[in-house]
Amino acid sequence: MKNFKSIPLIILVFLACQRQEVPLPPTEEPGTDPVPLLVEHTLYASTPGEDAPQTRTQVYVMNDKKILWTAHESISILSGGGNYPFVGDNDLPAADASFTGEGPADLGNYIALYPYNASASYDGGYVSTTLPSIQTGKAGTFADGYLITADDATGSSISFNHVCSGLRFGVTRNDIKAVSIRGNNGEKIAGDFRFGFASEDKPVAESGTEQCVTLRAPGGYFETGTYYYIVILPTVFSNGFTIIADTGSETGSLVFNSSVTFSPGIFKNITGFLNERIPAWSASQVYYGPQNSFCLRPGGSVSFDISPRLIEGDWQRGCVPAMADIPDAAEVLWGESAISAASISDSKLTVTASATPGSALVAIKKGDTILWSYLIWVTESAPVETALPGGAVIQSTLGGNCYFQWGRKDPLVDGSPLISYPDGDANALSTSIRKPNCFIDQGTNGFDWYAENLNNQDATLWGGTSGSKTVWDPCPAGWRVPTVADFNVEALTEAYAASFDKLGLLVPGGDSAESNGDYGWDADCWTREDVDTKANSLLMETDGYGFKKFSIVGNTRYMGLSVRCVKE
Q1: How many Cβ atoms are within 10 Å of 423's Cβ, its own excluded?
Q2: CA angle, 387 then 392 then 397, to 5°
Q3: Which residues contact 507 (CB under 8 A, 6 or more apart)?
Q4: 67-107: per-residue pLDDT in tens?
């Protein structure tokens, strides 16, 4: 693995935005006919000169002070609780443009937002929208759709102001696939955010949800002799920021250690070289989404960011390596009756529950390859919570009727296909990601799906005794797999027996997995801790007379047991 000895960056220029009021003719009156629900409007935006750049997304012939509207761009008009698309009438790039669309008969005071975003909303005080954390570059200019701008407007004259900031860079070698920016103190510079308007009608953005923005090269590699823009939210990097260049096989960085302010409409000046070593990327380091399971009501929906993130690392956490795949499709692997729709748009996965309660496993894919997957648990009411003797609060069995091999993030169900341990792997973690709906056999070791050689077992997959919640933890946000101490088994009595679902185990059976409750107990659920070659689980024993006792036992990790999440 090599690191960049030196990658000079072309000096960047500043771009500033000034608010300009341009009086233009009002929209045409609808006449004497009855006013329909939607009325066509024509709105105007223009720039009187080169020294007052506005929102256009194409830099004009290397002149950094003039930015043009490209042909037929779309903006959002947020009025009266609605979000209406308006499309530019210009056929060629232009400094002045008019936008036509349908909206309420009287737009009144409205928000004009570039670019158009169907999910953007305005509550009368703040506009909510999204700046993608993964962007695709465009040689010599802004990539379409990232340079967010807005105006708090009335009438037909729109004067856009920049919401975002960013940097402009060039490269001197032709093998760079991605360039990222990240604050050294974990500042949030992209993702979902909102903004309002200051006293001067200038948009003021609040913090986003993502710590890193990555610009991917168009066509595979950045060209030398030109420049590209990364757009971020305005912020103060209190401990400086880091620029990362990535070829897919080697990486380099440029680190600024002092406080730096990125202001709206200003694209920073960068000088220096990329010469610091960054740990090698690995496909097993990439994960997607904020959590691995979601609980919905029938007919409810959830939408969340599925941009790739790094599992390991320190300051580079969240930056996207060039080799990370971008999901392009969603698929329901099982439980179709519980899901009415699952789709990907703008780096987000949206899942809508049907009217039928149940559980489902939804995967995101690149082509035919599964990149990550999520348990969607559809329930009529919130899962039942139980306070244990030691004070820990647990929920009903995760997924209702689901089982988990110890350390895996994805649930299994009766009939899950059985696959053999992948020959030649140091561990089966990559297989568990690519085949999340499959029961992985224990191979020759008889204990663990994860490692053929038991010396390679990983006791930290779910965090261990004192570790933090990991990306492999199957529980929803705010919950985690319990420790042995959470159960306080010495104080568990028969009074708690009714709180534990009687699911038994999930074990291999022929070519599939089957539930099996014939081992002399009715309930068994995992803890996050290991014991020798096995892992600890809570056992509730019963006999012909009913409840006997609770105890902690070691269980083979390849078996499927239920998970009872505990509140963090």
Answers
A1: 7
A2: 70
A3: 513, 514, 515, 516, 559, 560
A4: 678 888 899 999 988 999 998 888 887 777 888 888 888 88
